[in-house]
Design brief:
317 residues
Amino acid sequence: MARLRSMPPRLRMAVRIVAALAVVVATAAVVGAAPFVEGLASISPWTILAAVALAAVATAAAAWRWRLVSTGFGLPLAWGDAFTAYYRSQFLNTVLPGGVVGDVQRAYLHGSDHDRLDLAARAVAAERIAGQLVQIVLTLAILLPLGLTSPLAPLAWLSGGVVVVALAAVAAVAFSRRGRSLLGREYRLLRPVVSRPLTLLAITGASVVVVAAHAATFVVAGLAAGVHAGAAELALVALIVLGGAAIPLSIGGWGPREAVAAAAFALAGLGAAAGVAVSTAFGVLTVVAVAPGAIALLADRFRSPRQRGIIGRRRSV
């Protein structure tokens, strides 16, 4: 990953696109094209309605989290601006390679509004890091206690393996001078958040809501695809798949997510093909659910500079 970050931006994006496509092609080579088609065919008006409603909940919680973190950095943010900007950010992250274009834009526009691009970028980065950390801890807290007797025990073993690898990686980094400097910088980035217990608790709660809404969308996709599993079982698998979607070698989540879904469903005894079908349906529903972000982008074109705020140009908050 460090070598990837050192590449020129265009080359880095090209590598991500090629890697994501390669993973999808490899997954299709293993399970065939039929699961992808089945996933697309399972989408219906009610699944779209459910996905849009759940995305609204997740976006509201994430926007609230961003406001809390941004305020901690001394950059106040109006609720309406945060909600609209987050929708737009999710849409851009989903339809453009890299998965961070929307975050970069909302950081830039918010920073321009306060003439503090550095703090705005730090706030967005801290907000995303906080969300990822809560998702990881929540996933491990739910999956690790499954034990050896549960049908989903292989997922617990997988989670345990991830923990061991992650701890080994952190330990290896911490032993180097450069690594300690990096960890120190990351801590300083999050210090405005972790130094306020009530704010930290609120951010954690908002992040849990975000994860729950995304997992619920995956459950909707699984039920629509006709997977022979209950909602609770699908929700557990969803936590693993959501982690796979966060791997930074994807196009709007596509790529590693499908491979991880195939593996997770296979380990859970549900079949790799079913995992790909559900992941495909989930991916399409995710794109449709953040469509309001496209509306926000279009609406911004018709606003005057004074009206735009962080949705477009600048305005005092």
